[in-house]
Amino acid sequence: MPIAVDIDVMLARRKMSVGELADRVGITPANLAVLKNGRAKAVRFTTLAALCEVLECQPGDLLRWEAEDTAGDDVGEDVAEDEQLRPAR
Questions:
Q1: Predicted structure pTM score
Q2: CA 5, 10, 18: angle at the middle one, nearest 5?
């Protein structure tokens, strides 16, 4: 996945456990683990804001983009498919 989640880094810096963060943010430890381990498909801005408030950080401290290995992928096809999904102007 091209978005990497660095919650572990902030937890270590703040000397905070996953359980404490989950309690303070108001989500289950299981849902926090899904996010923390990069298995989440989405995150609500309200959850991201709560994480940032509790961890006293910026969203960029928790999330970063990583390039995927695109060897053999035809980027042109992806662009063409994306353009087909857009409404005509």
A1: 0.74
A2: 85
Contact 63, 5 (CB under 8 A): yes
How many Å apart are CA 79 and CA 48, to the nearest integer?
A: 30
Contact assessment for residue 16 and residue 80, using Cβ atoms and an 8 Å cutoff: no
Enter the DSSP assignment of 87.
P
Q: Transcribe 22-70 into DSSP letters.
A: HHHHTS-HHHHHHHHTT--S---HHHHHHHHHHHT--HHHHEEE-----
Residues 1-13: tens digit of each pLDDT: 689 999 999 999 9
What does the pLDDT average to over 47-58?
Answer: 98
- The pLDDT of residue 1 is 65
Alpha carbon distance, N-terminus to C-terminus of the chain = 32
CA dihedral 27, 52, 24, 7 (to 10 degrees): 70
